[in-house]
Amino acid sequence: MKTVNKSEIFDEKKTSAIVEELQPTLFDLIALGLIIKQAHWNVVGPNFRAVHLHLDEIWALVQEDVDTVAERISTLAVSPSGQAHEVTDNAQLTHIPLGFLRDAEVIDLMTDRMSTVCHNIRERMAKIEDTDTVTADLLHQVVDGLEKQLWMLRVQGM
Ligand SMILES: [Fe+2]
User: What pLDDT score does 133 carry?
Assistant: First the structure.
């Protein structure tokens, strides 16, 4: 199966340097989307409605980010990987506990997972900033959106 096509954009070395940062980002974002839905379904407590609905907004944003990152990999003529077994093996995110979860705990768990993803993406972004400003800018936008949601989630727990 062919996983790399000829790219008009960069040579092989540059392409792989960029994709090395994008592919783990894709795994993290897919895993984050799954964790968000788990929390959305399992949240209980007085702030159920606010947290439940907010998590769905974040989920929708994350799905857009997943698509943006995957399609940037395709644009660079490399095959993106996003199947469940690959995500399980490679995502750098800890799952959340099984069962129903109190709203305050959900906020703690989700701010932790979202800040891990933002931190990871910031590190990866820094590595490719000099190689490809377009991909770095794309990751900037992903982090910008996630950090904004992180703020709105965090303040609900205060
Ligand atoms: Fe729902």
Answer: 96
What is the number of structural domains in the chain? 1
CA dihedral 143, 146, 148, 154 (to 10 degrees): -130
Confirm whether 105 is domain-assigned: yes
Q: How far apart are CA 77 and CA 108, in angstroms?
A: 39
Q: Cα of 41 to ligand 1 centre, how many Å? A: 7
Q: What percent of the chain has pLDDT over 90?
A: 92
Domain annotation covers residue 28: yes
In a domain, 2, yes or no: no
Q: How far is the CA of 81 from the centre of ligand 1 (A)?
A: 26
Range of the domain at 51: 12-157
Ligand 1 centre distance from Cα of residue 82 (Å): 23
Kindly indicate the confidence band of residue 1, based on its pLDDT and cuts at 50, 70 and 90: confident
Whether pLDDT at 14 is above 90: yes
Which CATH number goes with the domain that contains 111?
1.20.1260.10
Q: Is 0.70 topped by the overall pTM?
A: yes
DSSP 3-26: -B---SSS-HHHHHHHHHHHHHHH
